[in-house]
Design goal:
By secondary structure, this protein is mainly alpha-helical. About 100% of the residues lie in helices and about 0% in strands. The longest helix is centred in the middle third of the chain and has 80 residues.
């Protein structure tokens, strides 16, 4: 009977380990999927960041143009009053 008892314990341990291995494989697949999703999201955010930087550059460039035009108008107005 001792041999049967030992084999039963061994079978239980092997089954427990197989269950654990199955859960770990599933968890690993889930984590890999999450990583891929985060990589995609990161790439999208990088693209948005670049677009934002370009938009900021355009705003600053336009601001400088408007400032220059206003200064020119003010200078002309000052010339009229002189």
């Amino acid at each position: 009977m001792a041999v049967d008892s030992n084999f039963a314990k061994l079978e239980e341990e092997v089954n427990r380990l197989l269950d654990l291995l199955g859960r770990l494989k599933k968890d690993n697949a889930d984590l890999q999927s999450q990583v891929e999703g985060l990589r995609t999201e990161n790439a999208e955010l990088k693209g948005l960041s670049q677009r934002l930087q370009q938009a900021e550059h355009e705003v600053l460039k336009n601001r400088e143009k408007v400032k220059s035009r206003i200064e020119g108008l003010l200078s002309r107005l000052d010339g009229i009053h002189s």
